[in-house]
Structures are given as C-alpha cells and as structure tokens.
Specification:
By secondary structure, this protein is of the alpha+beta class. It has a domain of 92 residues: K homology (KH) domain (GMP Synthetase, Chain A, domain 3, 2-Layer Sandwich), CATH 3.30.300.20. Helices cover 37% and strands 12% of the residues. The chain has a three-stranded mixed beta sheet. Helix 1 packs across helix 2. The two termini are 54 Å apart.
Length: 186
C-alpha cells in the first residue's frame, strides 16, 4: 500500500464517519463506528469496515440500513473530496472488538484456573482453548535419544581465512611471530 492510498483511506474513514453522524438520518442505523477503510489500488472500490454495538439482530438491521445509505454518502463525498474516481463503497462488519473481548475473557478465566463458561457458537472463528493446569505427578519431558536438547546458541562460528592463505596459517604466524612464507610483506 502506498502512502497516497493510506492517506485516501484515512480521509475516507473520517468523512464517512462524519457523514454518518451528521447527514444520515435513517432510524435503522444504530450506534456505528467506522473503524477502517481499504481502497483498491485503482480506487474503484473501497471496503468500509464498521463496528456496531448491540445484539446480532441490531447489527444485521444496521448493516442493511448502511448498505442502503452508501450511495447517498458516496454522492456527498464527491463534493468534499477531490478524486478523479470516487470508489464504490462496500460495507463490512468489523467484529475484531468482540473477538478481542472474548480472548481477554478466556485468558482471565484460564488465569484464575476456571474452565471457560461460554460454549462457543457454531460460527465463532476462534476456538476456545482447553486449560491444561499442571498437577501433582506430571512429569517433565527430557530430551531423549531422538530429540536434540534445546538451549542457547553458542557464540562464534567458523573463521574465514584471508584470500590466498591456507586455513590455520594466520593463527600459526600470529603464535610464532614468523611471517608466512607464501605471503608478501607489507
């Protein structure tokens, strides 16, 4: 993504949010926040990600009302933003806030040693982890013959020799103080 498209995305996000607050009076639109806008590189399409507060029924009604209002908003953006082509606006539901809240809830329950209470819905994208708490009698796995021991890496490595110098000669010359016979003096 280029800086230009990032600036256009941010400008569209701000203008669409203001239009939803001030200009759209559809009672079917509940409490909506425009979280992100993603435009295609040729600026022909833009995905408008929105977050809607409320139960599933309210969200679906609000998304339907937003889809009906998008041509009106697109027309209004044409007078505010100077672009050669105003992108077609496609509304999508951003459920990252709900998923983040669910993950935090699961982590809190696991930290306290509880099994997560809520059974996930069929359409949930994140699996509910099963807690595995350490109990008395558990053994710690030690590396066996087929398993390498994992530990910190050793420092160092292979030493490179200078061009035209056989391996080990540099160290030998440094130890004895005698120059290598095949090497020119500087």
């Amino acid at each position: 993504m280029t800086q230009r498209t990032e600036r256009i995305d941010e400008l569209l996000r701000q203008e669409i949010g203001q239009a939803l607050e001030r200009e759209v009076t559809d009672p079917g639109i509940g409490f909506v926040t425009v979280t992100k806008v993603e435009t295609s590189p040729d600026l022909s399409h833009a995905r408008v990600w929105v977050s809607v507060i409320g139960p599933e029924e309210t969200r679906s009604k609000t998304l339907a009302a937003l889809r009906r209002a998008m041509p009106f908003i697109r027309h209004g953006l044409g007078g505010k933003i100077r672009l050669r082509r105003m992108p077609e606006l496609e509304v999508r539901l951003d459920d990252s806030i709900e998923r983040g809240t669910r993950v935090l809830q699961i982590l809190n329950e696991l930290e306290s040693g509880q099994i997560p209470k809520d059974v996930p819905e069929q359409g949930e994208s994140l699996p509910t982890p099963v807690p595995r708490l350490r109990r008395e009698g558990d053994t710690v796995e030690e590396p066996g013959p087929g398993r390498p021991e994992v530990g910190p890496r050793k420092k160092g490595g292979t030493r490179r020799s200078r061009v035209g110098e056989p391996r080990g000669e540099r160290g030998k010359a440094a130890r004895t103080g005698k120059p290598n016979p095949g090497r020119r003096a500087r």
